[in-house]
Amino acid sequence: MRALVTGGAGFIGSHLVDRLLEGGHDVIAYDNFSTGQERFLERAVQSPRFLLIRGDVLDRDALGAAASGVDIVFHFAANADVRFGTDRPERDVQQNSIATFNVLEAMRASGVKRIVFPSTGSVYGEPAVFPTPEDAPFPLQTSLYGATKLASEALVQAYCEGFGFQGHIFRFVSILGERYSHGHVFDFYRQLREHPGELRVLGDGGQRKSYLYVQDCLDAVLRALQRATAKVNIFNLGTDEYCQVNDSIGWITGALGLTPALSYTGGERGWIGDSPFIFLDCRRIRSLGWRPQVSIRDGVDRTLRYLQKNTWLLDARR
């Protein structure tokens, strides 16, 4: 199999590149390095089956050339930071919805029929049912990030119906692990490294979130790709547990041996569009024989240890 991975130098995308190469596949990573890191591809560049293309998913000509001759596209390029939406709404629309349209058009022009698309649990907004199943009705959208991901899902589904594509759509909870470069563990560790005696927390600390370790995430994606054969395949990806932000703070500060003064900056939401409770029903992906192997606490610990050993990433992501 010859695969194109957009966002291939990013946190999850670079791990996917490594996994595909380990599986014996030819891999093209396509990335503009706005957030991706060359160091994440140090293992991949040693393989003769790997090609790196510096390009932007908003550049349709370059994207079309990259898609030529591939069998499948893993579209992992996106703006993954929910909080940017209200400051720069065009960023979510361009880097999520328009970028997905560009990828689909590049595939159509090149005759590529298979796409893997990572969506988000944020598409459920603030649902009435927990754990939230894939067929839950979509409530009012609460974030531009979730709205543009949902629009992207709709585009993928429409191309599957209209142009004979096959799509695998995964609604992720927040992902943890090595190469993690944004999110609460990253933010907390950077703050505590600079000011060990204080920690600013967005929200009231009571937000309840589910997290998934990156390798467990990719185990699920690759398993579903092999075993789910419908035209459109949609899966929630998460664990059977969740934690409060305050729990995570305790694990992180405990591991660092710190007792900072905590400063909370809001109510139950950390920012506009933040969901105070995310907990997904993952029975559909479990029916394929997948089980996560790493607990939320272990995922936080592994992420923190990686950041402690790779402090260069703190400066690279300023």
Explain how this protein is built.
The model has no long low-confidence stretch (mean pLDDT 95). The chain is an alpha/beta fold and 318 residues long. α2 packs across α3, α3 packs parallel to α4 and α7 packs across α9. The protein is globular and about 55 Å long. β5, α4 and β6 form a beta-alpha-beta unit. The chain folds into two domains: 201 residues, NAD(P)-binding Rossmann-like Domain (Rossmann fold, 3-Layer(aba) Sandwich), CATH 3.40.50; 102 residues, UDP-galactose 4-epimerase, domain 1 (Alpha-Beta Complex), CATH 3.90.25.10.
Labels describing this entry:
13 strands; alpha/beta; 318 residues; seven-stranded parallel sheet; single chain; 2 domains; Rossmann fold; 10 helices; UDP-galactose 4-epimerase, domain 1
Question: Can I get a quick summary?
Answer:
The protein has 318 residues and is an alpha/beta fold.
Q: How many structural units, i.e. domains?
A: 2
Q: What is the 3D form?
A: globular
**The CATH architecture of the largest domain:** 3-Layer(aba) Sandwich
Q: In whole angstroms, how far apart are the ends? A: 37 Å
The name of the CATH superfamily of the largest domain reads NAD(P)-binding Rossmann-like Domain
Q: Strand order within the widest sheet?
A: 3-2-1-4-5-6-11
Spans of at least 5 consecutive residues whose pLDDT stays below 50 are none
**Would you state the CATH class of the largest domain?**
Alpha Beta
Number of strands: 13
The third-level CATH topology of the largest domain is Rossmann fold
User: What is the residue-mean pLDDT, rounded to a whole number?
Assistant: 95
**How does the major sheet shape up?**
7 strands, parallel
Question: Beta-strand level of the residues, as a percent range?
Answer: 15-25%
Question: Helical content, roughly?
Answer: 25-40%
> Radius of gyration, Cα only, in angstroms?
19 Å
Number of H/I helices: 10
Structural class estimated from helices and strands: alpha/beta
Helix and strand element order: EHEEHEHEHEEHEEEHEEHEHHH
